[in-house]
Amino acid sequence: MPPFSKLIGTPYVVLDTETTGLGRKTEICELSILCGQTNKTIFNSLVNPTIMIPDDAIAIHGITNQMVADAPTWEEVYPKVREVLAGKLLVIYNVQYDVRIMNYCCDRIQQPNHDYFGSLGYYCAMKEYADYRKVEDFFRKSNKWFKLIDAFEAEGLRLPEGFETHRAEADTILVQALIVQLHKKFELR
Question: What's the whole-model pTM score?
Fold first, then answer.
């Protein structure tokens, strides 16, 4: 079965977050959602976390505490996110990470998260790509997981001049381009 074939004919959205770090109490500081059918961003917002964004996270995504100071909180963003995800399959490159952070943010504000945030469920694009590439990871005893930029470039895709990765909207665009590229590749076979 071709990679990402489960998405054909299914209304799906690509979601990405940027966060305050990697730990257990990490919060979202940016979230973006792209419509798979139109290739258009349908939600993109900085999010004001309840904790400071540490310098090591800022060094990765460039989102500063000053940038989020006037942004809406997760509590304010959450209803819109649920509305946008309703009735759609949720595609995330590293689903375990993003869903863990979204769940933590929901728990913090006592909002439900057990229903996939109103979506039809989630789909891990990173796992799907790893299963497609079939490069064995002896330590994990599974297929190797690739960084998004590495998967993107391995499929012959190139970033436009000045395109910055590690921002939520940019990463949704990369995931969608990877999905489209692999659809094209398998249509030609």
Answer: 0.93
